[in-house]
Amino acid sequence: MKKFRRGLIAIAITVVAIGWAGMLFAAKITEDELRNKLLLRTITAATMISHERVERLTMTAADSSSPDYEYLRAQLMAARSANPDCRFVYLLKMVDGQLQFIMDSEPETSDYYSPPGSAYDEASNELRDIFASGEAFIEGPLGDEWGVWVSGVAAVRDPVNGRVIAVLGMDIDAHDWRAAITSARLAVFVLTFAVLGMVCALFYAMHVSVTAAQKIYSIERQAKEAAEAASEAKGKFMAYLSHEVRTPVNGIMGLVELLQTTTLDSRQRDYINAIDYSARSLLTVLNDVLDLSKAGAGKITIENVAFDFRQLLTGVDKILQAVAVNKGIELTTTIAASIPSVVNGDPSRLQQVLLNLGSNAVKFTDKGQVKITVECSSQDKNAVLVKIAVTDTGIGLSSEDIEKVFQPFVQTAGANTRKYPGSGLGLPISAILVNLMGGEIGVESKPGKGSTFWFSLRFTTVDSGQPEVSFTTDGGQQTTTGLPGWLSEPVKEISQEGGNVLVVEDNPVNQQVILAQLKRLGLHPDLAGNGQDAVTMAAVNRYGLIFMDCGLPVLNGLEAVRRIREQEKSTGLHVPVVALTANSLPEDRENCLNAGMDDCLGKPASGEELKQMVEKWLKPSFIDCVDMVVLRELNELAQRGQEDINLFIDAYIEELPPLFDSLAQAIQDGDTAKVMSTAHSLKSMSATMGAMRLAELFKRLEQQAKQEKCVEIQQLLAEIAGEIKQIGIDLKQAAKLLNPGNNLL
Questions:
Q1: Is residue 493 part of a domain?
Q2: Is the bond leading into 604 cis (omega within 30 degrees of zero)?
Q3: Over pLDDT 90: what percentage of the chain?
């Protein structure tokens, strides 16, 4: 009740204050309108006055008998008749610095009559100044010997030169003027009290209804607070669970990946594969539970970025092909040709939905085939509506199963949990993600005859501007993919001394895993066990890349990178820092980037994911001297012959010194023909190996020898000698990125 009264008083005061302001505003508006009307009438009347007749008057009593006086007086009387609210209409003239009446609209018998030439001693300075400025104005209310008036004053001009000859005045009784303004105020006052009465009535009705609803609201509020507290507790628990589970799983999967590259007998390889499968299954369940928790808390965010649609579908196809082949199932992917290559959307969420539906289809199909079909439902110049269907020949669903298939933690009656294990979260999460992306999802199925899960999404289209490479999937379908990321994406420049990598990690198992993975990539990683050591080591060493765990002792990863960024202000350098985090919530990534990190890599991270991060942020020393496209083709040729590309590189490196010595001797002997032939041979051999900078040097040497430019030849020879010393190292490092398994630890 007290709150109600305080609220009513506050609103009443507000209404009264608004009403008071409204009265002031209404008075001002009314007064401005009256002034504008009077000014317009005065100017109109002044315009009608004959300036020639005014100039012919003598400003003496004799004027009263002249025709000009009578004519002008008739004009004043007409002006007064046309403006009945005006009490006086008069003409004034400046004579020898004194204002004098030419005439007024009063009868000669009136006590207020002013004869021609009579002085107007009570004139204001503003009235006097009009003879100089010529600007019409409103004066008053002002009092004089005849009363209190509001006067409109306008100049009578010579139309030829604009000179002010006289002024015309129109006086309105101030009492009438003020009465009009008071009426406007009174109208607002009455309206204010009417509104105040309505507010009081409304508040009384609200008080009655609020009192009745307070108990219900109190109960609902308590329930909401309890739900929010439970949701917050669940979110904290899930974040803790994610961190605590992902950290050991990262170690398990990393060690398994390293063991798979060593020599194992069949039993050991089966054990390793079983461990890998179990760890990945655990990670899948954890990711599903986290996604469901995020969806319940409304924390799933949808991105809108440009991505290669066909490349994403191809990647999904490759992932599912391995499982399908093991089960003896045919998996095909068909993409309509009319679908643009590059679109705007959320590639990670799209891939998640595709993998959920595709994995389910393969899991529940024991024989037959799984088809992924992508069709264009509609398209214009700005967007495309895509329908993706995953069709299998598996166990199928009954009508009862279809109704609950998108419910969490539910498996259908035909899905025996021993034969087809799973958390039952893939389809519900897929439905949530499709809805968040603005699409539709559904299923068509019959028991024993397979199922078709489909979803539709709209993507805006963009011009990719990137070259494409065609290839065919195992299912025989044509698709496209962009060039490898390290070729198509911009790479940050680092100094030639910055080839080393710093790993900041406190978990011993994870230390072992990531150091081994980086060494397999041909890098030279250093290790820091806490954030303070990382700051110190970054200050004294020029690293090309830093992998930083977030939960570190002594100094956590976020504070460590802030201090590293402070140190860099004095040097002008910027070393890329990639966060290693077991936390998977969106705000965790945002916190890392805000602290000064350049990218994030979630745990567990595979060797391939680590390699992609290295390719993205660490510029290889060989990037400017090795043609990776040629080297990749050479690598594929070696693999088809079951050879190691390093055999080709070793043979090339072995041939270079004797040929170079022969070239140098030919230059010394002045044998131009031999110089040209040897340089040509070395150019072709280097180009075949992808040593593009060395091939270009030999090409230039061949041209200079043809023109017999001795000085230039000697300079090129010295440059070639230095390049030969480095090319073997560069080719070996480039080969490790193509086949990291060649360098087994």
A1: no
A2: yes
A3: 10
DSSP, collapsed to helix, strand or coil, labels residue 183 as helix
Q: What sign does the dihedral 611-612-618-623 (CA atoms) show?
A: positive
Rounded mean pLDDT of 513-525? Answer: 81
| pLDDT greater than 70 at residue 236 | no
Structural domain including 591 reads: 501-617
Q: Residue 196 is which amino acid?
A: L
Q: Does residue 50 contact residue 72 with C-beta atoms inside 8 Å?
A: yes
* Three-state secondary structure of 609-629: HHHHHHHHHCCCCCCCCCCHH
Nearest to 550 by CA among 576, 589, 607: 589
Residues 390 and 523 in one domain: no
164-196 confidence digits (pLDDT tens): 889 999 988 888 788 888 888 888 888 888 877
Give the Cα separation of 7 and 223 in Å (integer).
27
Q: What is the DSSP letter of 117?
A: T
Predicted confidence (pLDDT) per residue in 484-497, tens digit: 332 233 333 333 33
Tell me which long-range contacts 510-515 makes (C-beta under 8 A, separation of at least 24).
Answer: 510/247, 510/250, 510/251, 510/254, 510/549, 510/580, 510/603, 512/251, 512/254, 512/255, 513/250, 513/251, 513/254, 513/255, 513/257, 513/258, 514/254, 514/547, 514/580, 514/605, 514/610
Convert 340-356 into a string of H (helix), E (strand) and C (coil): CCEEEECHHHHHHHHHH
3-state SS assignment for residue 327: helix
Beta carbons within 8 Å of 492's beta carbon, 6+ residues apart = 574, 576, 617, 619
Least confident of 200-204, 505-509, 559-563, 569-573: 200-204
Residues 521 and 668 in one domain: no
Among 551, 543, 538, which Cα is nearest to 507's? 551
Write out pLDDT tens, residues 156-167.
988 888 888 899
Residues in the chain: 745
Query: If we measure between CA atoms, which residue out of 600, 570, 564 comes closest to residue 585?
Result: 600
One-letter identity of residue 485: G
User: What is residue 454's predicted lDDT score, i.e. its pLDDT?
Assistant: 92
Q: Is 108 exposed, middle or buried (0-12, 13-18, 19+ CB in 10 A)?
A: exposed
Model confidence, pTM: 0.37
Q: What's the count of helices (H) and strands (E) in the chain, helices before strands?
A: 21, 19
Least confident of 117-121, 245-249, 526-530: 245-249
User: What's 577's DSSP letter?
Assistant: E
In order of 317, 368, 458, 546, the CA distances from 333 in angstroms are: 7, 15, 20, 39
* Cα(509)–Cα(272) distance, integer angstroms: 17
Do residue 363 and residue 389 come from a single domain? Answer: yes
345 and 473 assigned to the same domain:
yes
Assign 597 to helix, strand or coil. Answer: coil
Query: Residue 132 has which token pair?
Result: 């100089």
The number of domains in the chain is 4
Pairwise CA distance, residues 547 & 557, whole Å:
10
